[in-house]
Amino acid sequence: MSHEKSISVEVDGKFINLKTVIAGKTVSSRDAVKLFKSGDLKPLGGKAFSSMGEAVTAAKERSEGFRRGFNKR
Known about the structure:
The protein is α+β, with helices and mostly antiparallel strands and 73 residues long. It has one domain (6-66). The chain has two helices and four strands. The strands form two sheets. The chain has a two-stranded antiparallel ribbon. A two-stranded antiparallel ribbon has the order 3-4. It is flat. The relative contact order is 0.19.
């Protein structure tokens, strides 16, 4: 089971990564964006990107970091 699932989306001209597992429950992409717009969800990594490609690359790097961490256990 994944401990984190995320999406890369464009919101108001900014490209961000948002988690979609919140309090142990999976939320839809639409609900994740609503939570972000309401201020109840922060972007993963705390920042926005200038392109979708940058956002996706950052999400992949984050995921790889988790995998490396698990392999050290």
